[in-house]
């Protein structure tokens, strides 16, 4: 039986999957073709020999995947969106809950100014149009962690619309070719977070903690402009960096401050869009791309097997590495949206429309917020490239690793070494050591000052490159000592005495006449052997290039 | 009366005058009323069931459903008004100022008080059933209004 060859292309990589058996595909262990080895390029399951295939090449199925995201970011504020109880990650259950958060009768929502400012700043940073008038609505559904039975959100007229988020994917063999992409932002809205449910399956009950209920969220809706897990993950990472730079959200996925839901569908290019599924609560950066790619693969296989895709909600089981349907979410939800009767429209102003004599605490000026916007990641990267002449992909790495940029800048402050050298040491050596031991920059045993001092020694040619690496290793291990101390302890200084070196060169040549003969005969490797011998004689305290020069000079004279 | 109102509605152009109910995009009742204007504006049985699940109300009797139908018909009289070019009023508060509160912590720390109201608690958590408990599906014969 001819095997149809499936092809799903994504700018970052090409997938070729041969569908050879039509057995049941439920409960697959790991998603096929997932990036387990971290290598780019093709990953194919055993292919049928094409000689037996009846289909002409043109008949190969092409699949295009369409991914849209709904991102919920917890606003970084002291108190909640509509009440004065505290926003804090870890606290005794139900201790950060006000009467309003518990939806006791007689309580009313009071809007937090900081949350509105956070929404406007985020909208401006994402090139959105800020709606000077926006409205609050109630979205009704029943769940134990939603005490009021509805969530206050902005469905009809959100605070910001029609923006864009630019991000870059790196392709090519060395991942050094940049492709700049943009995803459109449909809207940004303010809404309440729900409480937390802890499922106690043993006693068949759910424990509810309302500390999180009512915390302000920014929901950022990204249009389905992305086509694979990597694009989605990169876009989310960039959004994280922007939110962190603005200070509007700490956007830490591990602490639940950033949650992503993905809407995924597949179709043949040129044909209408397919049925989409929603994959909810992708709460880990690691699994985000994996889950999306798995779902795309699952849909392709399902359709290729003649099945159909249900418009359902699924969640990602990270242990099994697959998406599974969620219970309690079957069937279409009817949220019965109504305007929030207790809140008037939210009005924002700019410098032109600001009413005279208005209480500054009670009005928000969009222009003023725009002027106060801090530097965005894109600009920081551009400055790094311009100022230090580094490659674009290096600027991305510096920003992507928490604390690395600060580390780099601190080293630059204290060293005379060239930026290119500093960049190389920070991104290759330093980062390499961190990754090997799975440490964060903040946990590094080597301080910026120590590295700066080491690079100065290297720059002054007090030590050789190889010696510097040894010193770095020792710095990492010992922690307390300074580079200078280590250099003197291990006697790693380069020989400064030129005469002594000259003598050593002479002596070595005299000791090994056959090598010198080889060299004179024209054997190119002989010179390296000689250099090696001299180095050994100097106990590795001489620069090979200097040795080479000296030898060549002595030989020619 | 209802029929006369319906005719007037059909003659008036769409414009921006539709009430909020039609924009909600999901309200089963308005869809039933608009899409298929029945003889006496009856609400179909499956819509009643749907409403009972959504709002956790129990219509219970034919009289209750009849009251619902009368209420819908009463509200439908709004469609008789020509609201062409008139901005919808979303809230009677639309002229009011939305007060902005400073970002200070002034509430909370009353777990004991809040937990007092709960039926069941466990170590400072509210206790709830394991998931949403779905209502039993009503038998066809138990429904009072026919589709």
UniProtKB/TrEMBL annotation, chain A:
Residues 19-59 are annotated as: Disordered. Coiled coil: none annotated. It catalyses: L-aspartyl-tRNA(Asn) + L-glutamine + ATP + H2O = L-asparaginyl-tRNA(Asn) + L-glutamate + ADP + phosphate + 2 H(+); L-glutamyl-tRNA(Gln) + L-glutamine + ATP + H2O = L-glutaminyl-tRNA(Gln) + L-glutamate + ADP + phosphate + H(+). Residues 29-44 have a biased composition (Low complexity). Gene3D superfamilies: 1.10.10.410. It comes from the Eukaryota. One of its GO terms (biological process) is mitochondrial translation. One of its GO terms (cellular component) is glutamyl-tRNA(Gln) amidotransferase complex. SUPFAM superfamilies: GatB/YqeY motif (SSF89095), Glutamine synthetase/guanido kinase (SSF55931). Keywords: ATP-binding, Ligase, Mitochondrion, Nucleotide-binding, Protein biosynthesis, Transferase, Transit peptide. Allows the formation of correctly charged Gln-tRNA(Gln) through the transamidation of misacylated Glu-tRNA(Gln) in the mitochondria. The reaction takes place in the presence of glutamine and ATP through an activated gamma-phospho-Glu-tRNA(Gln). PANTHER family: GLUTAMYL-TRNA GLN AMIDOTRANSFERASE SUBUNIT B MITOCHONDRIAL AND PROKARYOTIC PET112-RELATED, GLUTAMYL-TRNA(GLN) AMIDOTRANSFERASE SUBUNIT B, MITOCHONDRIAL. Belongs to the GatB/GatE family. GatB subfamily. Subunit of the heterotrimeric GatCAB amidotransferase (AdT) complex, composed of A (QRSL1), B (GATB) and C (GATC) subunits. This is Glutamyl-tRNA(Gln) amidotransferase subunit B, mitochondrial. It comes from Pipistrellus kuhlii.
Automatic annotation (TrEMBL), chain B:
The keyword Cell membrane does not apply. One of its GO terms (cellular component) is glutamyl-tRNA(Gln) amidotransferase complex. Residues 17-31 have a biased composition (Gly residues). This is Glutamyl-tRNA(Gln) amidotransferase subunit C, mitochondrial. Transmembrane segments: none annotated. Residues 17-41 are annotated as: Disordered. It is found in: Mitochondrion. Keywords: ATP-binding, Ligase, Mitochondrion, Nucleotide-binding, Protein biosynthesis, Transferase. Belongs to the GatC family. It is an enzyme of class 6 (ligase). The keyword Lyase does not apply. Allows the formation of correctly charged Gln-tRNA(Gln) through the transamidation of misacylated Glu-tRNA(Gln) in the mitochondria. The reaction takes place in the presence of glutamine and ATP through an activated gamma-phospho-Glu-tRNA(Gln). GO terms for molecular function: ATP binding; glutaminyl-tRNA synthase (glutamine-hydrolyzing) activity; transferase activity. GO terms for biological process: glutaminyl-tRNAGln biosynthesis via transamidation; mitochondrial translation; regulation of translational fidelity. Its EC number is 6.3.5.-.
């Amino acid at each position: 039986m001819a095997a149809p060859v499936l092809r799903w292309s994504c700018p970052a990589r090409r997938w070729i999957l041969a569908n050879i058996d039509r057995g049941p595909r439920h409960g697959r262990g790991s998603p096929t073709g997932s990036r387990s080895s971290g290598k780019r390029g093709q990953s194919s399951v055993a292919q049928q020999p094409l000689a037996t295939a009846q289909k002409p090449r043109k008949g190969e199925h092409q699949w295009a995947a369409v991914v849209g995201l709904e991102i919920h970011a917890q606003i970084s504020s002291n108190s909640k969106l509509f009440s004065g109880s505290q926003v804090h990650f870890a606290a005794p259950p139900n201790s950060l809950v006000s009467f309003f958060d518990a939806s006791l009768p007689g309580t009313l929502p009071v809007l937090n100014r900081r949350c509105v400012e956070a929404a406007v700043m985020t909208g401006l940073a994402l090139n959105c149009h800020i709606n000077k008038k926006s409205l609050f609505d109630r979205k009704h559904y029943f769940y134990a962690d939603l005490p009021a039975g509805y969530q206050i959100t902005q469905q009809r007229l959100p605070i910001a619309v029609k923006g864009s988020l630019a991000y870059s994917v790196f392709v090519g063999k060395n991942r050094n070719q940049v492709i700049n992409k943009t995803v459109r932002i449909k809207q940004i809205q303010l809404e309440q977070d729900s409480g937390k449910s802890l499922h106690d399956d043993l006693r068949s009950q759910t424990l509810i903690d309302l500390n999180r209920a009512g915390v302000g969220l920014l929901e950022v809706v990204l249009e389905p402009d992305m086509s694979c897990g990597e694009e989605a993950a990169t876009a989310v990472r960039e959004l994280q960096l922007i939110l962190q730079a603005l200070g509007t959200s700490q956007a830490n996925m591990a602490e639940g401050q950033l949650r992503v839901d993905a809407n995924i569908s597949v179709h043949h290019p040129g044909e209408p869009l397919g049925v989409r599924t929603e994959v909810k609560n992708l709460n880990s950066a690691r699994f985000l791309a994996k889950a999306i790619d798995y779902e795309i693969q699952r849909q392709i296989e399902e359709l290729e097997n003649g099945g159909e895709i249900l418009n359902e909600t699924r969640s990602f089981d990270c242990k099994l590495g697959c998406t599974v349907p969620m219970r309690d979410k079957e069937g279409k939800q009817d949220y019965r949206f109504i305007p929030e009767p207790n809140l008037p429209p939210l009005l924002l102003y700019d410098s032109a429309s600001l009413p005279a004599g208005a209480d500054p605490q009670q009005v928000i000026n969009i222009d003023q917020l725009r002027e106060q916007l801090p530097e965005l990641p894109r600009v920081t990267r551009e400055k790094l490239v311009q100022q230090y002449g580094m490659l674009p992909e290096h600027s991305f790495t510096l920003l992507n690793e928490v604390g690395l940029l600060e580390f780099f800048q601190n080293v630059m402050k204290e060293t005379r070494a060239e930026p290119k050298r500093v960049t190389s040491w920070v991104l290759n050596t330093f980062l390499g050591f961190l990754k090997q031991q799975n440490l964060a920059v903040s946990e590094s045993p080597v301080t910026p000052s120590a590295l700066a001092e080491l690079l100065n020694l290297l720059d002054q040619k007090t030590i050789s490159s190889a010696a510097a690496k040894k010193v770095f290793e020792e710095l990492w291990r010992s922690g307390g000592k300074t580079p200078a101390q280590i250099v003197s302890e291990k006697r790693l200084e380069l020989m400064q005495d030129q005469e002594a070196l000259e003598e050593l060169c002479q002596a070595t040549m005299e000791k090994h006449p056959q090598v010198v003969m080889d060299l004179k005969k024209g054997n190119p490797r002989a010179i390296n052997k000689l250099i090696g011998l001299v180095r050994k004689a100097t106990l590795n305290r001489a620069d090979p290039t200097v040795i080479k020069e000296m030898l060549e000079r002595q030989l020619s004279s | 009366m209802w029929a006369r109102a319906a005719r007037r509605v059909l003659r008036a152009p769409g414009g921006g005058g539709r009430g909020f109910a039609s924009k909600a995009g999901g309200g089963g009742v308005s869809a039933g009323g608009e899409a298929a204007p029945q003889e006496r504006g009856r609400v179909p049985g499956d819509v009643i069931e749907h409403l009972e699940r959504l709002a956790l109300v129990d219509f219970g009797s034919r009289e209750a459903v009849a009251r619902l139908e009368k209420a819908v018909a009463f509200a439908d009289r709004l469609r008789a008004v020509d609201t062409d070019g008139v901005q919808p009023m979303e809230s009677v508060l639309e002229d009011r100022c939305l007060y902005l509160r400073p970002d200070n912590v002034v509430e909370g720390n009353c777990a004991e008080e809040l937990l007092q109201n709960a039926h069941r608690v466990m170590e400072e958590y509210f206790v709830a059933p394991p998931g949403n408990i779905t209502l039993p599906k009503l038998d066809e014969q138990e429904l009072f209004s026919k589709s």
